[in-house]
Amino acid sequence: MDSPISSQEVVDWTRRLNYGTWRHQKSWTPLHVVDAEGCYFTDAAGKRYLDFSSQLMCVNLGHKNPAVIKAIQDQAAALPYIAPGYATDVRAELSRMLLEVLPRGIEKFFFTTSGTDANEAAIKIARLFTGKTKIIARYRSYHGSTMGSIAMTGDQRRWPVEPAAKGQGVVFAPEVNCYDCPIGHRYPECNIACADYVEHMIENESDVAAVIVEPIVGTNGVLVPPPEYFPRLRDICDRNKVLLIADEVMSGWGRTGKWFALDHWNVVPDILVTAKGITSAYAPLGLCATTSKIAAFFDDHYFAHGHTYEAHPLTLAPAIATIREMRRLDLVERSRELGIYLGTKLAELAARHPSIGDVRGKGLFWAVELVRNRETKEPLNTKEEKLAGKPLVVDQVAADMMKQGVFVQAWLSHFVLAPPLIITRAEIDAGVAAMDNALSLADRLVTSPPE
Q1: Could you tell me if 218 and 412 are in contact, meaning their C-beta atoms sit under 8 angstroms apart?
Q2: Residue ranges covered by each domain of the chain
Q3: Which tens digits make up the pLDDT trace of 326-366?
Q4: Most buried among 100, 245, 319, 427, using CB within 10 Å?
């Protein structure tokens, strides 16, 4: 029997034989994690960390939920795999449950293994159904890493794979960002000009099959639209016979205080894409869901999509258990209530730190945006600096928080706070206190406005 390797060897072998994603490889020194339970994970030295971002904004139930683990175990013993052309108990049960929690009118499902390939399915379905080709996405967006989904990604993660991504028929619209409007307007005087801009694009691009949006933008800053935006966008799409695709990979499953973020505005998309929280990330499952109108089209037209792991039984069983646990623990309402508490604590934090330009969010989904200057809203770092691998201020703050035993996702010039939905008020207090202590690093870089 091989002797066990040391923790340092685990890190060394990981660095040597694996790619670290979205980063320069030379600086990657991954933490060796050996356990996780509830709202915490533990490293090889025995230190516990409060998981203040649910890893990649996905472990909504917290770690090691017994019911979800048992569902995986039972399914592995009963039927670990069968090809997607067959019907299974678990597939039928999950599909019926989805009808109860998804926006009413979303009634046909294609199961994938991630949000990325669920988005690939969505754009293929949209093009097949409409007979048109172009997709309108938004600049501050992330839709995945495969070629179609990265082409729809508006942020700097798309840049290194161009010009290949440019051949995917995607054009970009301005995002909704009332804190720092990309087209220079101010809400509410703007009359939702960013939505009207999308209609202008549809009229002038022609051949537009769909508009894809994150209802609440995720890693690009938890951008929450004003209440008029989505009803207006829904109307624009309907009048122009363009499909509306909602990427709820991150914002779904109770994260924002509703089952899905679009529920806040009573808007139903034509296609809804989700993943992450659908299994609380215990198994890799994504979902591309459509209206019955789109589904009926494929009764007499070829559905040109599929893959080996579609509707994989081991991924469907934990989704059933996750929905049951969310209901049992009333986590959607809990997210709404604790989100108000977290938002209040973050507003108090902003009042103490001049480096905080804005805090925004819904439910247990918040961003803290750092700036060099509150008046000019100049960020502490740029997209070019991130791609170049230069040290970012948010990474320094996050590293200090890790020393205090709190993990938070840092991205460019903001943090994404998305703790497990089971988090307590005391744990929220601990997470905010760690950020409070660490923000002195950013406060020292704040400048006065130019004369």
Answers
A1: no
A2: 7-61+330-443, 66-328
A3: 999 999 999 999 999 999 999 999 999 999 999 999 999 99
A4: 245
Q: Which of 155, 116, 126, 127 is closest to 414 using CA atoms?
A: 155
Burial degree of 186 (CB within 10 A; 0-12, 13-18, 19+): exposed
pLDDT digits (tens, 9 = 90+) for 156-183: 999 999 987 777 899 999 999 999 999 9
Q: Are strands 208-213 and 243-247 parallel, antiparallel or unpaired?
A: parallel
Positions of E strands within 363-436? 365-373, 378-379, 406-407, 409-411, 414-417
Strands (E), 38-93: 40-43, 48-51
Omega of the bond prior to 231 within 30 degrees of 0, cis? no
pTM for the model = 0.97
Query: How far is it, in rounded angstroms, from Cα 357 to Cα 369?
Result: 6
Assess contact for 221 and 369: CB atoms under 8 A: yes
CATH of domain 7-61+330-443: 3.90.1150.10
Fold of 66-328: Aspartate Aminotransferase; domain 2 (3.40.640)
